[in-house]
Design a protein that fits this description.
The structure is a homodimer of 229-residue chains. The first copy, chain A, is built from ten helices and four strands; from the N terminus they run βαβααββααααααα. In chain A, strand 3 and strand 4 (75-78) form a beta hairpin. A three-stranded antiparallel sheet of chain A has the order 2-4-3. The first copy, chain A, has helices spanning 16-30, 41-48, 52-65, 83-107, 110-129, 132-149, 153-170, 177-195, 199-219, 222-227; strands at 3-4, 38-39, 68-71, 75-78. Chain A is mainly α. The first copy, chain A, has two domains: 6-78, Winged helix-like DNA-binding domain superfamily/Winged helix DNA-binding domain (Arc Repressor Mutant, subunit A, Orthogonal Bundle); 83-227, GntR ligand-binding domain-like (Four Helix Bundle (Hemerythrin (Met), subunit A)). In chain A, helix 4 runs parallel beside helix 8 (177-195), helix 4 runs antiparallel to helix 9 (199-219) and helix 8 packs antiparallel against helix 9 (199-219). Chain A starts with a strand and ends with a helix. At the A-B interface, strand 1, helix 3, helix 4 and helix 7 of A face strand 1, helix 3, helix 4 and helix 7 of B. Chain A binds a DNA duplex (30 and 30 nucleotides) through helix 3.
Chain lengths: 229, 229
DNA sequence: TTTCGTATGATTGTATACAATTATACGATA
DNA sequence: TATCGTATAATTGTATACAATCATACGAAA
């Protein structure tokens, strides 16, 4: 996520450039374009029915988002995420999610708190049933609510970027019912600390939560996911 | 700093786009282009002797860096930094500089440590003389060394982005000999903790250092700097 | 066979032309 | 006078043409 756009909103949705940007980003994150794959301006342009100009502009942005790397006069390549990158991101995230949770104490709205509670309640159901697809959705949404509740566009955007960035890896790792339940309990504890307006505790719990998520990831085959490629 | 380029290196230095990017960025950070000023593609292009194409691509990147905001079909405007943004950045930085310092304990090289010591020694001299220009340079460099020493491109880039981003504001606020000396002492304590391979202490000291820098900034007229415009 | 050099093609870099959108000026009408 | 609408100009959005660079293939020379 290079060139961290410190406080931007999503890129223009309706211009051709914006559409190319979003489409290619989605395709990278979903795994359609593999790591180190070369992306050609003409090919992408033809696929989306646009000329090279908006494609090039989108590429420049994707480069700054860290999703592709552009080598001058050579080409654009999908960025690889190393095991070290993943660890770095989780350690950084753990600090920032703590900060985010502590800020949320003061700024969360009644509606956001209610959506959190609902999210936790629903997640418990799906966790027990082993519905990992829904769990993943709910997990992402829980964190998103917290990002929005911290009342800092800067931090919100930063965390969303990081969260999105590791989605690529999360898809590769296994989930277990045990971890899903534990994770949801941690969400509940964080929510309660925020609800009780206890920023120190919210910080501590959210920090620990990301640490745990990382530990679990490592335990459940992060390395293997890489070694098998 | 939208679209935080999570792990990129500096933009291509020799292409026209790269040159435009660097030049405009510098001009924004130096204050040549004021907040909310409109940047026109043709004007910038003519000034630098290039066509609109590289200018547009540079603009897209600057947008993601958070330095300008592009309104579709309308124009590009220099992003304003609010007091809240500054506070957010300093709070985020304080957490991340702590993390960075703790990581540096394990990875700093002998050369980097020596440059840190030299930096502190020189800074003491300039602080006592009231050479604020040199102090600012040395301060930036001290932090840069630490960023490089943490051995994480991700964190290094993130912190450099933030550091650069607040330069615009730092220029507006006053410096005092007292704060310069105190700041340098804090640098020394951080350096010693890193040298002694004490990550907890390094974390703590670096975190506090940024907090102090922020407090000092507020005390010395951050608000006034804004109100006077 | 290996190595080097050249030619060819493919791809990116840049400039320019045209289309679409937005801002401004001016005049008509109430 | 005030307001609205239209015409014009300015600016951005996109497509395309051409230049520069890089990759590849092929053949000549050792």
């Amino acid at each position: 996520m290079q060139g961290y756009d410190l406080k931007q909103e999503v890129t223009d949705k309706y211009s051709l450039r914006g559409r190319v940007f979003n489409k290619v980003r989605e395709d990278i994150l979903s795994g359609k374009y593999k790591e180190n794959e070369e992306l050609k301006e003409i090919a992408i342009g033809e696929e989306l029915g646009v000329s090279r100009t908006p494609v090039r502009e989108a590429f420049r942005q994707l480069e700054l988002e860290g999703l592709i790397q552009i080598i001058p006069n050579k080409g654009a390549y999908v960025t690889g995420i190393t095991i070290e990158d993943v660890k770095d991101i989780y350690m950084i995230r753990s600090k920032l999610e703590g900060l985010c949770a502590s800020w949320a104490c003061e700024h969360i709205t009644k509606e956001q708190l209610e959506e959190m509670e609902e999210n936790i309640y629903l997640a418990k159901f799906h966790a027990e049933k082993g519905h990992f697809e829904q769990m993943s959705e709910l997990d992402s949404r829980f964190h998103e609510i917290m990002y929005e509740a911290c009342n800092s566009k800067m931090l919100e955007h930063l965390l969303k970027d990081f969260h999105q960035y590791v989605q690529r890896v999360r898809r590769k790792t296994l989930s277990t019912i045990e971890r899903s339940l534990a994770s949801n309990s941690e969400h509940q504890a964080i929510m309660e600390a925020i609800r009780d307006n206890n920023p120190e505790r919210a910080d501590e719990l959210a920090t620990l939560h990301i640490h745990n998520a990382y530990e679990n990831m490592v335990k459940n085959g992060l390395k293997e996911a890489y070694l098998n490629e």
